[in-house]
Task: structure prediction
Amino acid sequence: MGVVALGGTIASTQHANGAGVSPGLEASDLVGSVPELAEVAVVEAEGLVTKPSGDLEFSDISLLYDRLTSLVERGCDAVVVTQGTDTLEETSYALDLLWARDEPVVFTGAMRNPLRTGSDGPANLLAAVQVGAWPATRGRGVLVVMNDEVHAARFASKVHTSSLSAFSSAPNGPIGSVSEGRPYFTVELARSEPLEVPDEWDDSVELVVATLGGGARILEGLASTRPSGLVIAGFGGGHVPRHLVPVIEDLVAFAPVVLASRVEAGRTLESTYGFPGGEIDLLSRGLLAAGGLGALKARILLSTLLSSGASREAVERSFRCCVQRYDGSGAVDVHR
Ligand code: ASP
Result:
């Protein structure tokens, strides 16, 4: 079992200037602080970067992918990744899009740093290793284990700034839980075809949130930089103020623009609202519906596709499949 550490609250110590904490612990420190790990697996601790997770970049995803690959090629049967929770939903989803192997990758972190009473890092690390080591976890792709819940990376999101149960998979719910040292899975998910690992990441894809009366300056500024793609987190089922429609139309002329929602749960609509800036209007102008995929994840999917040179048709195909993601039986089909 490999444990790869990327920093975050779980790895934090007192910051040098005495104000607050910042990432400072190595993977070996994290592993060394949980002696029970030795009862579960032979653990190889690997440091990669030590950052607040808001400083992680797309290039770190490639570094991580390469390190995970070399660990499983050296014989690790699972790998746990520890990192900050702020961007964990984005990095774990990116990895899930790329990871084709059966060896599970389990992300975890902490909401309370190691200096706090009741710090959750050691328990989360132990649970993540227990999940990774359990034979039935094999083949389940990339998972997120926090607070004894097992989430599929494709659904997990951070929904609270400080609670120990900060991660949710609304509206689907976690795919399992950890009890007495082992996972219990309650949902079976089909794996998706992996995407190509980009040689170089295109980080020009931005996410713009629709706001009351706002957005024009942001979108006009963005249009002048010619991004390779854009995700709009619209109001409700996928709406923007009508004054944004012309600039969005300009953007669609040269780049794929995905319509997601700024609302935490639920799908983008297709055929309900007919007003200018409503979903019918925007989709008829060539925006691509994100369906049940949240805005942050839609940006990761679009960035990954564009970074590996996907054609506009391939991007459209991916998002069309993503819209049809659920087959209604509780089993979830593919993201793309
Ligand atoms: N609050 C963060 C965490 O949970 C800090 C970070 O994401 O690095 O780890």
Residues 8-9, 52-53, 84-86, 109, 111 surround aspartic acid (CB under 6 Å). The longest helix spans residues 58-73.
